[in-house]
Write a structure and sequence with these properties.
single chain; 272 residues; alpha/beta; Rossmann fold; 2 domains; six-stranded mixed sheet; four-stranded antiparallel sheet; globular; Hemin import ATP-binding protein HmuV; ABC_transporter-like_ATP-bd; transport; translocase
Length: 272
């Protein structure tokens, strides 16, 4: 995203996921109105804003799950609509808010569902032979999310934070170019919430593009870039320092806040 805290669209490159002047309706409601933003491989971007701002709608549009009435999404320099479904699924991985995992399945089996680019279904046999590349991708995803140590446990026996990491591992097993997370820290305690953010930052440092919808502004401040939505429009985008200002947060949330800094990151404190 642009360094400027504005709705202007910055220059794109081939290694990006881009929203271009998106207009999306949810029924008769204009959920997104002229939203433009660029998300780059190797960056962790957070999408923030009040309830109803259009955050999850934007994620769905970026995935091709919500069709815009105007504007378009471009993936790696190509219009998303031009991508074959299976190729798109290999390139964009998605972890939905509160996504349910099969409770009686083993962790390894759930992570293995990430292979096949959406061709695997719960309880069905794979549509192609399992390969060593599949096995290696699953093991790598388990290691990267620190879930290898409970690989043989049932999902039902895991804590909420452990399940979230298993869901993340399943998404990473697809070896995507971009990872989209819808409120991945929702219903998690502080330790597990920070754990998710650390994993997101680590994946971005390794070259993956990570886009996460977050409600907690102090967790979002740990991202490389922020996109602040309000009323379906871009209110600001840029670095955490550029976006998380008292003026922007008052305009978006109607709250007076103080912005301090802790280890170089903005720290948001509501005023009494």
């Amino acid at each position: 995203m642009s360094r400027a805290a504005s709705g202007q669209r910055p220059a794109a490159s081939a290694d990006t996921l881009e929203a271009r002047d998106l207009h999306v309706r949810a029924g008769s409601f204009p959920a997104l109105q002229g939203v433009s933003a660029i998300f780059r491989a190797g960056e962790f971007a957070a999408v923030v804003g009040p309830n109803g701002a259009g955050k999850s709608t934007l994620l769905r549009a970026l995935l091709g799950l919500s069709r815009p009435e105007a504007g378009e999404v471009c993936l790696l320099g190509r219009p998303l609509r031009a991508w074959p479904r299976a190729e798109r699924a290999r390139t964009l991985a998605y972890l939905a808010q509160g996504e349910a995992l099969p409770p009686d399945s083993r962790v390894r089996d759930v992570v293995a569902l990430g292979r096949g680019a959406g061709e695997w279904k719960w309880g069905l046999l794979p549509t192609r032979p399992w390969t060593q590349a599949d096995e290696d991708a699953v093991t790598d995803a388990l290691i990267r999310t620190d879930t290898l140590r409970f690989v043989d446990r049932r999902v039902a026996d895991l804590s909420g934070g452990e399940r979230q990491r298993v869901g993340l591992a399943r998404a990473l097993a697809a070896q995507p170019r971009f990872l989209l997370l819808d409120e991945p820290t929702n219903h998690l305690d502080l330790a597990y919430g920070l754990d998710v953010i650390r994993h997101a930052r680590r994946e971005a440092a390794g070259g993956l593009g990570v886009v996460a919808v977050l409600h907690d502004l102090n967790l979002a401040a740990r991202a490389d870039r922020l996109l602040l939505l309000c009323g379906g429009r871009v209110l600001a985008q840029g670095t955490p320092d550029e976006v998380l200002t008292p003026a922007h947060l008052h305009a978006a949330y109607g709250l007076r806040v103080r912005v301090l800094h802790d280890e170089g990151r903005p720290l948001i404190l509501p005023e009494d």
